[in-house]
Each structure stands twice: as structure tokens, then as C-alpha cells.
Amino acid sequence: MVLINNPWGESNEKGLLAALDAKGMEHAGIERVEKNDVDVVPQLTRLKEAGADALFMVANVGPSAQVMKSLERMGWDVPVVSHWGPAGGRFNELGGPRAETVEMIQTFTFSGNDSPKAAATLASLKDMFPEIKSAADVTPAVGIANAYDAMHLTALAIEKAGTTEGPAVREGFYAIESHEGLIKTYETPFTPDQHDALGPDDYVFTRFIDGEIIPIQ
Amino acid sequence: MIVSTLITGLGLGAMYGLLALGFHVTYAVSKTVNFSQGSSMMVGAVLGYTFGVTLGWPMPLAIMAALLGCAVLGLIVERCLVRPFADRGSDLWLMATVAGGIVIDNIVLFTFGKEPRSLPSVLATQPIDVFGAGAFPLQLIIPIVGVAIAAALTLVQRRTKMGKAMLATVQRPEAARLMGINTRMVIAGAFALSTVFAGVAGLLIAPLFNVSSGMGTIFGIKAFATAILGGITSAWGCVIAGLLYGCVEALTTAYLGSSYTQIVSFSLVILVLVTLPNGLFGRGEIKKV
């Protein structure tokens, strides 16, 4: 694991360790990167020498780019799977040629998405922000989609509750039957036992190709 | 692992050393320092990117223009953030330069944008083999530039009239003025030179790192630690301490793990200062009574 050295990285470490434990797998090592690390070869060398055969990366654009540059410097051709953190900016410009090999886990992309809702939202974004010329200019699409759907689901819950009082809104979330969102059409997204409207089937792997985030099979 | 770790450490350390030289230059002539050195480094990189990439100027011209911009910034810092306080015998220039750095960072944030950009260089694209370890050519050039600048500065300080004027300015400002030395200009020149050093560091590190408004903050802090570690009165001390500090950081990360890097490197600074209050190569000031 290559994790940003902050509470975000720590929370992902707990989740990833639990996932590895559930699969009965072990990790080769856990290394931290700082926001302003110029060169992370020492951390990556430790992982390489510990026998890592793949890296899981959790960091934003800047540090993720430094990881990819350092891999290029080392000449270490190792698969890198990443949180969607690098999707939020000019990762392919900053990370050099290796940036395109990173597989990011996402819940949404505009590219390769033929849903009418996605097309309408992209068109609205272009109207509102003239600097957006194509899907490649909407970064991070996944963050926008998650926030967009969360806001609409929350509005629905408040409408059903008829108040903004906490417990009533919670019941309002449970009362949502169906909502056509950007990521998917939500069918009874929340129940007392299910507080995450997204499940394993909603995730896709993506790569930066020519500056655009493309889903991969 | 050792070769690749030392390449990392020397490259980073030379950068800390270059910034620390900036602290040394101003301290050597005025007993003041510019705590916005990290921001000056960032300005060098941002101006280089703006002239070379955004405006498409030839890179040598863009670099010269960026360094000129840094020199002007140094003059402004000295005139507005240091001189008014130093003339009154106050130490408030310390807070003023810290605040000035925050102002500069935020001005760049609003004008340049929050997203980091890449400053392309052929020297940071294709790694070369160095004793079995990969290294970008620029990583090997940075320590050479750091040592060359320290050597040139020492030569100027010891062998030229300008160097003697700098020494006279700090030792006896009144006597220096009576001898016809424009002490204000010497001090202003030292600040310009210090921000140019920071600009050089910014331009050198940008292709290996990125260009963004917040890039200089942590480098500025570490460079000051380096200047104190080496002895702020010694140009060579600053550079050697920078290289040492960079190597300690890289070796700690490589052999103990990245969780220990900041703990070990800053503890080393504290340990040295406890045992050697003037740093590794600095000399205590002798006061005649």
C-alpha cells in the first residue's frame, strides 16, 4: 500500500487491511507519502524488496503523480490500483507516461456512458461553464456524480420528511422508493440495515487515456 | 538500494541547501532573514512555467525572466517587510516576512489556480543508469549547481570588493557608510540574491515535482532547519547541512520506513543544536566589550 500520510490514508489502511483479512491475503508493506514528497523511490524500494507484486495507492493528484514518476525512475513495472484521488486534476500531465497505467476505482465516468441523464448533465455543465469543452474537462467526474446524486437523494428525503429535523430526514431516506440518478437508478437505496446507496456492482475500473478517464473491462 | 537512496537524498538536500544559502546571504549582511523563502522558490517556478509554457517563450529567456522577477520580489520584501522594522531595531521583520509569504502564496493561488501543473524538461523524462540505480539527469545536476553556487558565493565574499562591502556592512554599518559603502544597497542586493537562489531551486525542482502555489511552504521550513543545522553564518555549512539533511531523510525512509522520516530528521536538528548551538559549521559572534 502507498498511502497519503493523513487521516484519509489511515482510514483507507483500516478498510484495506479488513478487505485483505476477509480474503485471507497478506500485504507486503504499508508506506506513507507526504503531500510535498518530491521523490518516493525509498518508499517504493522498500515495497519492491518486500516482494510487492501490485500497489494500492491512496492519494490526491500531486503525490500520486510523484509515485508514478518515481516508478518510472526505478524502472519498476508493477500494476498500480488506485483510489479515485488522482482523477481530480491533471494527473496524466503530472505523472508522466506511467500515469496512463494506473487503474482507478470509480463509480461514474462521462466517457463511454450512454445514459441520457449523463448526456444531459454534461450538456448542462458545458452551458454553465464555457471552459468545459469535453468530458475530459470535468474533473473529478466521479466526485461530481456522487455529490449530485447525494444532493438529490437528500432533497427527496427532506421532501418526504416534510422537515429538516434529523431523525425525520433519516426516515425520509428510508422512504425513498426510486430515483433516477446520474450514477444509476436507485431502487429503495436506504433501509435501516443498508446505509450505502452504492454497492459492489456500481464500481468500475478506469484509466486516464489521452487526458480522459475511460472505463476499462 | 543505497545508491538510489543517496541520489534521492543528494538531489533533495541540494535544494534545501540552495534555499538555506538564501537565508545565509541576508543574515550575513543584515542579521535578518526572509522567512518567505519558500514562497520565493514557488514564485520562481510559477514565473518559469508562465513564461515558458503559458506564454511559450524560449526556456532560457523564460528562466532569466523568472529569476529577474525573483530578484524584484527580494527587493520588495526587503523594502516593505524588513527595512521598516530593522531600522527601528525591531525584530518584527520576522512575522512580517512570514505574513508576506502567506500573502504571496494566496495571490498566486488566486491568479495561477489551485491545480498543480507540470513544467516539462528533457532532463526529467528518461531515467539513466547510475551504478545500477535509475536517476533522472536533473537529479544529478541539482547537487552540482548547489555546490557551484556555494563556491561562487564564497569566492565573491572573500575575494571581491562586493564581498568586503558585505562584510563591512554587517560588522560596522556606520563605518562602512563613512567609507562610501551604500549599505542600504548592499542589504537590498543581498535580499535580491537570496530570492534568486530560491528561484533557482524552484526552477530546478519543478520538472521533478510540480508547480503550484503551495509547493514552497514545506521546503522553506526544512531549508531554515538546514541553515540552522549547518550554521547560518557559513555558506558551505548551509550547503553541506542541506545535503546531509536530504540524505538523512532518504536513508531514514529507506531503512526505517516513511513513518519515521520527519521524526528522525527534525530530532537530528534538535540534537545538533543542543550540542552545537551555532550549528555544524557556524561560528559564534564575538562581541567586544
Description:
The complex is a heterodimer of chains A (217) and B (289). Chain A is 41% helix and 16% strand. Chain A is built from seven helices and nine strands; from the N terminus they run βαβαβαβαβαααββββ. In chain A, a hairpin with a 2-residue loop joins β8 and β9. In chain A, α6 crosses α7 (166-175). Chain B is mainly alpha-helical and 289 residues long. In chain B, α2 runs parallel beside α4 (93-112), α2 (37-54) packs across α9 (217-230) and α5 (137-159) crosses α6.
What's a concise summary of this model?
In chain A, strand 3, helix 3 and strand 4 form a beta-alpha-beta unit. Chain A has 217 residues and is of the alpha/beta class.
In round numbers, the mean pLDDT of chain B is 90
Biggest sheet features of chain B: 2 strands, antiparallel
Which structural class do you get from the secondary structure elements of chain A?
alpha/beta
Low-pLDDT parts of chain B are: none
Task: Supply the number of helical segments of chain A.
Answer: 7
* Regions with little confidence, pLDDT below 50 for 5+ residues of chain A: none
Elements of chain A, N to C (H/E): EHEHEHEHEHHHEEEE
Report, as a whole number of angstroms, the end-to-end distance of chain A.
23 Å
The span between the termini of chain B is: 54 Å
Strand content of chain B: under 5%
Helical fraction of chain B: over 70%
What is the tally of beta strands of chain A?
Answer: 9
- Widest sheet of chain A: strand order? 2-1-3-4-5-8-9
> What shape does the CA trace of chain A take?
globular
DSSP helical segment count of chain B: 11
Share of helical residues of chain A: 40-55%
Strand content of chain A: 15-25%
Q: Mean pLDDT of chain A, rounded to whole units?
A: 92
Q: Report strand order across the widest sheet of chain B.
A: 1-2
Please give the largest β-sheet of chain A.
7 strands, mixed
Quaternary state reads heterodimer
